[in-house]
Every structure is written in C-alpha cells, then in structure tokens.
Specification:
Layout: E1 2-7, H1 15-26, E2 30-36, H2 40-44, E3 53-58, H3 80-112, E4 120-124, H4 129-139, E5 142-147, H5 162-176, E6 181-184, H6 187-195, E7 201-203, E8 223-227, H7 236-246, E9 250-254, E10 269-270, H8 276-286, E11 287-291, H9 298-301, H10 306-314, E12 318-321, H11 324-333, E13 336-339, H12 344-356, H13 358-368, H14 374-389
Parallel strand pairs: 1-2, 1-4, 2-3, 4-5, 5-6, 6-7, 8-9, 8-11, 9-10, 11-12, 12-13
Helix pairs in contact: 1-14, 7-12, 8-10
Organism: Kribbella orskensis
Protein name: Glycosyltransferase involved in cell wall biosynthesis
Keywords: Glycosyltransferase, Transferase
Length: about 400
Amino acid sequence: MRILMLAQSPIAGDSRILREAAALTAAGHTVHVVGRDVPDAFLADHGELGAGASVESVSRSAGLRGSGTGPVVGHGQRGIKVLGQRMVRWLLLPEHRLRTEKQWRTAAAAKLATFEPFEVVHAHDFNTLELAAEYAGKWSAKLVYDSHELWFDRALPGRPTPLWRIRGRRFETALAQRAVVVFTVSDGIAQRLRERGLSDVRVVRNTFPRAAAPAELPDTPAGLLYAGRVGAGRDLPTVVGAARLLAPFRTLLMGSVDPNYRLDLGGVEKVPETSIDEVDRVLQESGISLVTLTNTCENHRLALPNKLFHAVRAGVPVVAADLPELRAVITKYHLGTLYEPGNAESLAAAVRAVIADYPGYVSAVRAAGDELNWDRDADQLVTAYVALAKPPANASN
C-alpha cells in the first residue's frame, strides 16, 4: 500500500517514526513522510526509513524565545525584568503552542493538496490527526492514529488550561473513532484510550533492535548516565541532588537542551551528545541508565520512555522513577530499581541497590532482551497493516 505519514516531531531524531517507516517499507509498502523542519542532510539521505520511503519537510515558527544569552545549562538569570518576561511567557505559551501547530497543519495541507491519493494516512500524535482525518476522507483512505503520548494529559509549560484539555479529549476521541486502528506505546495509555471509546487500540512499544552480541560489562558499574532530553518534567534537579550524595561515583548527563531551561549541574558531568548507536557505548562504559520523570501528570505515570528500552538493548540495568507503567515492566523483568520522583535520597539509595547486585541485574536485562525488542513490536505493526491491505469481506471478486 501507499502510506502517508504525518508528523510534527523532528523526524530525523524520532526513533519511533524511523523504525515504523522502515518496518513498513521492509514489508513491501511505500511510505511518504511529511515531517517538521527536517534537516537538509536527512532529506538527502534518509536511508534509515528504508528503500521504499521518501520525505518532505514543512516548517513552523521556532517558538517563543527567552531573554538573554546566558548558559543553557547552568545558573538561571534573576531579577524583576527576567521574572516579568517569564510571567509573560507563562501566560502566552498555550496560545503560542496552538498557533505554531496550526501553522504547520496549514502549510502541510497545501502540500497534501498536490498529492495523488494515498491508501493509508498514518497520523503521528494528535497535532496531525485532524489533518490526517480530513485527507483520509477526501481520498477514501484508511486512517491510522499513532498516539505517542496521552496527549491531553501531558505536563505542559505555561498557565493551566483545564477546559482545553476536556474539549481536547472529546475531540481526539471523535477523530480517532474514524481510525481503523490506533497504536500507542504502553498498556496503560492503551487502556485509557479504550476507556474513552476507542475499540481497536494496539501497543507498539518504543523498543530497539536487538544488539548483535551481548555487551561485556564489568562486575561493578563506573557511573550512571541520563541520556535524553534535558528539560522540565525529567526530574533532573533530583538527579543533581543524588549526584552530590553519590560522589565520587560519576553521574553523567547527555542530551539536547530545551530552550530557556536552566539547571545548576552541581556534581553532574555534562557529556557531548552523540548518535543513538554511540549512546550504547557510553551506557556500557557507565554501567547504569537513568530513566527519570516527574510524577506530575497522567502521561508520565503511564509512559514507557525510549531510554528504558535503549538500556535493554545496551544490556545495562536501570534506575527509574517509581511510576505505574515503569514499575510494571521493571519489576516483571527485574531490569533495575525504582526511586520516588523528587526524592534525591531515594534515587541515591536505588543506585546503591543496583551496585550491590550488579551482576544479577545485568543477567536479568540480557534475558529480557529476548522479549523487549523491536522485532516483536514491529511484528505488531506489520500484522495490523496486513489486515488493512485485505479487501472487505463483502467486496466483489
């Protein structure tokens, strides 16, 4: 089938979109991705998507810019002027977020109007769903909804917007009911979507392909690594507090930093970003992976972050926030230990517990790789698409 994927995420770094497109092209489909602000280098060489894939880019505004030119990670600026500017941002962010997402949809719609019809329109996240549903209707195509997050239950910067969330959940459900299948990332989010009236919801986790060979790790870890987005909601102040308690045991931080995010690193070492595959090496050299989130929203409580499965691929135990969905997977497979979000002493104790039984946790992570891998999750995706390709049972021969 000819599949159109729509995504407002930066797809060059979105491992879920890359792997899904590659799995579908390997299964014989052709996939065209319309993404956001795709780098020229990726447009020219997007081999990660598979031989049957193509990519186009649509831009949207860069967002509200903060004041000053202070360090991205370091001590924040202070003063009445800065506080006033932050208050204005806090008030305006919800409207700005909606405006920039709408701007992308408007520009993407102009591209879609020039396309020949596709057989499937695959919407990645809610901010593409309305446009995807519109064109699936125009083309008599099948609509697929891929909910990477529990969209209207996320912790978002800016002033509270309770009415927007209530209306949004209803609108999301009404649009998603047009989809022939809904994919999401965890059992917890799948259950919430079913409770809201969606029938065929399937879990395709953000797992990684299996490593070619098991990693050789030392008997004792050398440090712990947080590899991911550096920003609000990641419980990083707790990581800083725990690093001071664990010193001289090393705590490393690697990842892209959100604009305007300020963090006093304290005893945490900032290390350069690297490719996804190279992160395996840094994880293995450190020995423990940090999977941190704040307990501030339902989306966090039901999330299974990529970095959990990246640690499994690297063969490295984890220390993770004690949130329901993370707890279920980590305890089932004995992947590591849990800490109370916001509690530096709890995080330090969880790290010490992994160190105390490190060989046992390493063995458990290796065993879990037999099940927690992309081959299994890709099969869920491809199997669903096999059903989409079949003609209706009452179709004429």
